[in-house]
UniProtKB/TrEMBL annotation:
Lineage: Bacteria, Bacillati, Actinomycetota, Actinomycetes, Mycobacteriales
Transmembrane segments: none
Entry protein name: DUF402 domain-containing protein
Pfam hit, one: DUF402
Domain of life according to the entry: Bacteria
Length: 174
């Protein structure tokens, strides 16, 4: 008999972005210095170094209207990945005048510009819902946000930034 796939069951990952303190508190509670924060009407940009074995720097846009966090990971040479953008689905919001909060809703999308958008971690979303970590409404919202993003990206030739521009969202990276 073969063993089935084991899902990494965990509560939604919560992260904080302290603009006044120029810090980012990751889901494990580690407080990291942030080089750049920038707010725009459509979201929050963050850029910071990382002490991760696979990447040394990351840039993210929190886009609340789309329920997306778009990230570019600057991978180390020995850990390069075939991806241009990594999209997290979740709730992203200002939690005060100088504080933002993200709650990850498990689904992720890898965008390979001009080629494809791949949905990941459906198993995690279903397991989290079954465990009571997400309501049916939250799970449905996550699926709808992912579907909207994949459809929009695909309809723009798998160009994430082109899709955003069509929605009046102009993002920039360092």
């Amino acid at each position: 008999m073969t063993q089935g796939h084991v899902v990494d069951l965990h509560r939604p990952k919560v992260e904080y972005f302290d603009l006044a303190g120029s810090t980012n508190t990751d889901p494990k509670g580690f407080v990291r210095p942030v080089e750049t924060y920038r707010t725009e009407p459509w979201g929050l940009y963050m850029a910071r170094t990382a002490d991760h074995p696979e990447f040394h720097y990351l840039e993210s846009w929190l886009l609340p209207e789309l329920s997306l966090r778009a990230t570019i990971f600057h991978f180390r040479p020995t850990h390069r990945r075939d991806q241009d953008f990594y999209l997290d689905i979740g709730d992203f919001e200002a939690a005060g005048p100088q504080m933002w909060k993200s709650v990850d809703h498990y689904l992720d999308i890898v965008v390979r510009t001009g080629r494809e958008a791949i949905l990941l971690d459906v198993d995690e979303l279903l397991a989290a819902h079954a465990a009571g970590y997400l309501t049916a409404s939250q799970a449905q919202q996550a699926i709808e946000a992912a579907t909207r993003a994949i459809d929009g990206i695909a309809s723009h030739g798998y160009d994430f930034e082109s899709w955003l521009r069509s929605r009046g969202i102009e993002i920039g990276w360092r």
